[in-house]
Amino acid sequence: MTSPAVPRRPSRWLSRTAVNGTLLLSVLYTLFPLVWLVTAATKDTGGLLSGEAFSFKGFDLGHNLSQLASYNDGVYFRWYLNSLLYAGGGAAVCALVSVAAGYAFDKYAFRGKEKLFGVVLLGVLVPTTALALPMYLLASKVGLVNTYWSVLIPVLVNPFGVYLSRVFSASYIPDEALEAARIDGAGELRTFWSIGLRMVMPGFVTVFLFQFTAIWNNFFLPLVMLSDQKLFPLSLGLYAWNSNTHAEPGYYPLVVTGSLLAVIPLIVAFVCLQRHWRAGLAAGSVK
């Protein structure tokens, strides 16, 4: 005599449904602003103010792009290049500095190493906005205010990137490989550049992406440091335009279309580097 089949417990089905429903809501919540941005960028001023941003009625994207390129002698794309310089150059140098520092903290023994690393960890707890005014005063003393360097230099060091790089160095670089290079006659700098940096490349890319996103979205530091409109990044330039929308509604299409174009470099960076980024995050979580 066969025993009756045990019915499947509904708790597992309910749990799976709850998880999938939560994930779906999270995806919709994340994509909703982007969908609004894409559709709103196709509207003129009247279409935006009428509340029909989610329809493609009155498609005017070409005219908006033309206005964006020609307004004030194309200052928007000057801001675009400035942001690429600040974010791309700053993130690349910061990632290299962070990886080198993390490598040194992991592979070398020197007096006061852990205490110095504790200071680095304390730097993670300090909000960047709290450092803006002291950095402005320092930049003012050396004559760097209202220059590219006033925005670039402060973003070249990231305490969290140093901490993350030490974790990656411990996970990715075996001491045996470094010893083999030293036995073959390689110096410390050559060992780091040819072996250490290449082996910890997922960590380099991870720090680069974090810093690139932070610099690209940075607003307060350029606001404090810069007064020349030609040096503005996109975040500050679009803010200046948005401040004028109350007096001149014609700025609305410029702000919305400019915001849509401003998202593109972030998407491209994450799509192109996602393989290294995923590997880096997985290694960091396991460690």
From TrEMBL:
It comes from the Bacteria. Keywords: Cell membrane, Membrane, Transmembrane, Transmembrane helix, Transport. Signal peptide: none annotated. Gene3D superfamilies: MetI-like. The chain crosses the membrane at residues 21-41, 84-105, 117-139, 151-174, 195-216, 251-273. PROSITE patterns: ABC_TM1. InterPro entries: MetI-like, MetI-like_sf. SUPFAM superfamilies: MetI-like (SSF161098). It is found in: Cell membrane. Its main location: membrane. Residues 80-273 form the ABC transmembrane type-1 domain. This is Carbohydrate ABC transporter permease. It comes from Streptomyces mauvecolor.
